[in-house]
Q: What sequence folds into this?
């Protein structure tokens, strides 16, 4: 049975976040190995249009929180002996061999060269292939404008023809690696990623509201993505994501609820097992929470290349990457301990799993831009209030 905590401080953080206008709505949840410690919410599903309160059973687009689910699906294939992380990506997806490296421009003409080495599946998992995202890469913004190749959000398969922006293994570049990893998983499993996730992760863990293709009922109780108008008020920008994409995006395609995703977090917190169901071996989970990028570092600062989509991301020094997880190498005073695994989603969702303290948690809104100072401030205040209550 989960321990009992006083969640009044967390309640205040959520209420203040909505009351101050920092977020349009918010839900948060925390758990330990034995069960849920806290859950709460504030605000409504559609600002100015709805009276439906947001809580931990509300559906959110979790965007890049999908990545750890897809990574887990890949690690399951490794455990089954079907996938070799050291193998070139093109061994599983031959079309990956067509990708070149964008080294700059001659006027508006992209300069593309052959990669110095063949990218591996391990490099997909660790964002070291050189594949990027437009919103943190000015070169890709210019490339998309010059070629008409779309980014991945509209769901066109053409987005997967985007070039690398660095040579494989030479730097950490956060990007569409996990979308390609999902294609690798499909090639190995012989079925689509939605089936793989349902059969290997969501189904076994009882995550009945986690899906790439929500039904009408789930869509009806999902929040909308919000942006601020010129008057500073939050308003719905709609759903954003294409409901019928060309592929199930391992990098950003899942919808889920806080109550569902915390079950996934708890399984990782418990070493790969929950309620008698094992999704990963303990040693695989340990590897996921270990530095997998060697002497490379997660960038201390990533400047925005698209301010409407994201602010600059200022993690500061001392961060590494495991399998699908951002890892802090030192304790954060009053917050997570060294070795915590975490990540976030573009519409301002965030999770962390602190195996030292024995707690996992996540906080959700659906708004843009990503990681604004206001949103980042709420993340931190939630975490501080949680640790103060433990």
A:
């Amino acid at each position: 049975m989960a321990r009992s905590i006083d969640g009044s401080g967390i309640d205040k953080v959520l209420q203040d976040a909505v009351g101050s206008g920092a977020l349009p709505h918010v839900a948060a949840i925390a758990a330990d190995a034995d069960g849920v410690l806290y859950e709460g919410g504030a605000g409504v599903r559609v600002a100015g249009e709805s009276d439906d309160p947001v809580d931990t059973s509300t559906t959110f687009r979790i965007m890049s929180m999908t990545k750890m689910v897809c990574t887990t699906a890949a690690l399951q294939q490794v455990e089954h002996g079907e996938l070799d992380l050291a193998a070139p990506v093109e061994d599983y997806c031959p079309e990956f061999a067509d990708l070149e490296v964008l080294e700059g421009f001659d006027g508006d003409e992209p300069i593309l060269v052959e990669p110095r080495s063949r990218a591996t599946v391990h490099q997909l998992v660790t964002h070291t292939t050189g594949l990027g995202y437009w919103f943190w890469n000015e070169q890709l913004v210019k490339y998309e404008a010059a070629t008409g190749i779309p980014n991945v959000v509209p769901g066109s398969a053409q987005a997967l023809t985007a070039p690398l922006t660095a040579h494989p293994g030479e730097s950490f570049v956060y990007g569409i690696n996990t979308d390609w990893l999902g294609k690798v998983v499909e090639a190995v499993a012989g079925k689509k990623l939605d089936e793989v996730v349902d059969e290997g992760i969501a189904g076994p863990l009882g995550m009945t509201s986690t899906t790439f293709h929500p039904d009408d009922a789930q869509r009806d109780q999902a929040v909308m993505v919000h942006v601020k108008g010129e008057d500073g008020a939050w308003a719905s920008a709609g759903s954003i994501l294409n409901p019928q994409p060309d592929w199930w995006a391992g990098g950003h395609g899942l919808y889920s609820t806080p109550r569902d995703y915390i079950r996934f977090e708890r399984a990782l917190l418990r070493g790969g097992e929950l309620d008698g169901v094992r999704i990963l071996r303990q040693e695989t989970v340990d590897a996921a929470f270990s530095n997998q990028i060697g002497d490379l570092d997660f960038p201390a600062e990533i400047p925005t290349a698209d301010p409407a989509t994201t602010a600059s991301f200022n993690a500061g020094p001392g961060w590494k990457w495991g399998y699908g997880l951002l890892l802090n190498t030192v304790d954060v005073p009053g917050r997570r301990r060294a070795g915590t695994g975490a990540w976030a989603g573009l519409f301002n969702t965030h999770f962390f799993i602190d195996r030292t303290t024995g707690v996992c948690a996540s906080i959700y809104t659906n708004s843009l831009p990503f990681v604004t100072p206001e949103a980042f401030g709420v993340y931190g205040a939630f975490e501080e209030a949680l640790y103060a209550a433990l």
The chain has ten helices and 17 strands. Residues 89-186 form one domain.
